[in-house]
Fold:
Amino acid sequence: MHFLSPDRLWLLLLIPLTVVVYVVLRRRRSTYALRFTNIALLDRVAPRRPQWRRHLAVLLVLLAASSGTTAFARPDDQVKVPRERATIVVAIDVSLSMMATDLAPTRLEAAKKSAKDFVNRLPAKFNVALVRFAGTAALMVPPTTDRGTILRSIDSLQLAESTATGEAIFTALDALKLAPPDPQHPNQPAPGRIVLLSDGKRTVGRTAQEAAAAAKAQHVPIYTIATGTDTGFIEMDGIRQRVPVDRDEMRSIADISGGQAYSAKSAGELDNVYKDIGSSVGYDKVDKEITSRFAGLTLLLTLAAAAATIGLASRFP
Structure:
């Protein structure tokens, strides 16, 4: 947080000065009372009241003054505002290792469910595309706001051999070029993001690092989700094969592209990952003056101080 009129913050120095004056006056008043007051008579006529009420009223006034001064300095901070337009490409690995059951019921089925929830949470104006990849990558649905088409296509995903992670990223980048222009801003391309869900290392095609570098050059961050556990396995022709997740590969893709790497070791974690990604791609952080926040706090503190003062005054005869 910073301030548009920071010089006004110097007024905050008046707060500790006021505290010093208050303490000095209280001590002088106490000394005077001890010297010139008949204590026994005073206790009978006006019994002593708890001093904390008086101090509370003063404290509330000082807090209100501090908050008001802060508002006067026009604080400015980054706030999240909904992004009106964007294109999100969801790329889902359908290689045979995704049949592992370390995510219930399988990695692929857990990925389908979470991906559909993610798509449903995106703003209505967002375009969404779907890429599936195994030995090859294919654009199943070009960028569209038709959520029904995307959801049905996710449901139809089937397993296949090999893993072409790099090709999936290049296919996703090509998909972003198909996004329809904004009628109101035809010359301003909407921001693009790739959500890449996979559990394994590339086995065919161009390297994932080469593709991630291409994404960075096009200002398209990639959110990677390493799906599964280190103990996952599949059975092929009666033979059990371990299929541990290659998190280093996923992290490398995210780091090179300027995105973020996630790891999902359970279906519940996978849901949380998609929620976090949704809050990232669905909002922009912009600088915005937040004077109203401190003005509202000042009002509340002022009312509280007034109530405390009234309550204190009502206790005196």
Q: What stands out?
A: The chain is about 45% helix and 20% strand. The mean pLDDT is 81. The two ends are 48 Å apart (CA to CA). The domain at 84-281 is CATH 3.40.50.410 (Rossmann fold).
